[in-house]
Model the fold of this input.
Amino acid sequence: MTSLASRLQHVRERFEAACHRAGREPSEIQLVVVTKSAPLSMFPELAALGIRDVGENRVLEALSRRTQTSAPFVWHMVGHVQTNKARKLLEWTDVLHSVDRNELAAELEKHLARSNRRLPCYVQVNVSGEATKGGYREQEVDAAVGGLLQLAPHLELLGLMTMAPEGQDARPHFRRLRELAVRCGLLGLSMGMSQDFEVAIEEGATCIRIGSALFGH
Done:
């Protein structure tokens, strides 16, 4: 297996090539390395390689991993959050990518208000309409964004997030998310993973989430 440094370099080359094709600057797009499948021993190497943003998808495991890591990462939650784990989530996460229902937003607001803290987050949208995916449906997005601003003022809405369906052309799904974000007046687009991040960049992603390209499945 090639080294982590080599795999990261390959991802960065693909990243920069996609930016060039889209006429964009690489600095416009945040790279979140999804470390959920990476051993804790790799974290110092990631920091040494210039990675500043890491993503996790399990609340309690991530809390444990953060307490064992001294590197000054920005920690992103990229997975589904159970409402009863909202308080634990706030003990470690810096950015939440998966606000997918009002019940979660209300529970987060309760804890955030107590500490007068704001949490940057993305609203998850199920653009593909797949039953297996969470998130607000496309037709719910306008009402959801407006409602969240009222329901949870301590959530700082950065933009929208989605996942394209596996085995399908991701482009129309990413393009539709961009259109929805523009309509809602939001600038951020968290979209694109190892298998489709280049298309996401071409369609306007401001944040991509890379895991398996670096650590395998």
Observations:
- The chain has nine helices and nine strands.
- The two ends are 14 Å apart (CA to CA).
